[in-house]
Amino acid sequence: MTDHEFYMDEAIAEAIKAQEMDEVPVGVVVVKDGVIVGRGHNEKEKRRDATAHGEILAIQDASAHLGSWRLSDCDMYVTLEPCPMCAGAIVMARVRRLFIGADDPKSGACGSLMNVVQDNRLNHRVEVVRGIKAQECSYLLKEFFKKKRIK
Length: 151
Hints:
Elements: H1 3-20, E1 27-32, E2 35-41, H2 44-47, H3 54-66, E3 74-80, H4 84-92, E4 97-102, E5 127-130, H5 134-150
Parallel strand pairs: 3-4, 4-5
Antiparallel strand pairs: 1-2, 1-3
């Protein structure tokens, strides 16, 4: 198992926490120098807050842990390609690298629908690596929505 697979497994564990709360199963970890410094998963329903995406919560957690909003020495692992809001937050937090599990052709803002994190007009660009444990990440989401449709 590579380090990238290990960290994505940790993000998947966060996604499972969201799923257990009947939230869309997206999980995130933020890593600095080989140590997980931030975690998050979707909590929109629980918090009744449209901004309570896993990426936002993981950025907040990492920033609190590190005592800085600048995450320029940090990497983020996320099970689903971030939306425009989260992609913007990733840029604003100065995340160094973004490792994505599953692509999101409907609202992905890191190369699928648009590419906020690598837009040359912005003052920071994020290196993106796609497809880390993509099948596992995609499976979680497909099964979640399949069960929702049955209900």
